Amino acid sequence: xxxxxxxxxxxxxxxxxxxxxxxxxxxxxxxxxxxxxxxxxxxxxxxxxxxxxxxxxxxxxxxxxxxxxxxxxxxxxxxxxxxxxxxxxxxxxxxxxxxxxxxxxxxxxxxxxxxxxxxxxxxxxxxxxxxxxxxxxxxxxxxxxxxxxxxxxxxxxxxxxxxxxxxxxxxxxxxxxxxxxxxxxxxxxxxxxxxxxxxxxxxxxxxxxxxxxxxxxxxxxxxxxxxxxxxxxxxxxxxxxxxxxxxxxxxxxxxxxxxxxxxxxxxxxxxxxxxxxxxxxxxxxxxxxxxxxxxxxxxxxxxxxxxxxxxxxxxxxxxxxxxxxxxxxxxxxxxxxxxxxxxx
Length: 344
Description:
disordered C terminus, 12 helices
């Protein structure tokens, strides 16, 4: 549904150049919720604004629903009209709501339809339908100043859906909200994704957002995507930065007389007493240095850092036992070639 290829954005100011996007390749499948996560300055906002060409890319292409939007940019009046039509099929939700204070809630939702030239009767019908969908049917005549932050964001979502888009872009839509309101907005986005078949691309700096609703995710650093995939794939990838960030565990990994292992549980293995089985089978003392458990996609997932007595070479068999149980194993402080050889 969304593809970027070699996407580059360079900002020029006072003789200086700042590269916000550096050859970004992104692939978002139809009907999924895709999260892009990274620290401030990683390029997340530039990416999402380039997807609907609110920012014109310096280089590269953006394709949405099979249409190359970058081919329409700056190509004359007809192409400009086509670009506006393409944009109308892409909804956008902003961090700070961007509602017009002088308009009622219903009028704010009707605004995109008004711009598209939709009749007044149809605008009213569609706006009331959308407000009911986001749980604000009783607020149609209220003004933004009378709403809570969560209610304002629901209005923003309803407005983004006015043009019946196939794609919804969310630019830090929950970062200005309290935790409870954040959960309700994320649940609303997931419900809309399922009910309407919406493809949702959201950017965030909060790992909890990815854990709550994302099917796939990408990690951005310094204008590049350094890691991407479905959440389940990432959890099963050795050394995944995103998996480690989703389920952070602590504990000293140094020492020549012990082996420290990060164990990722997902699928059926998450409900099995694997660690106690390991201790009984090999009659070894296992220290648990840290653990993090949560629910992702309705399934329990977690990561545990454990310590086994003795060097890595002495623990090849117990580690093999864990792998046979379907667990993802990362041995800390070992060279990859040594770990791979030991796994064999």
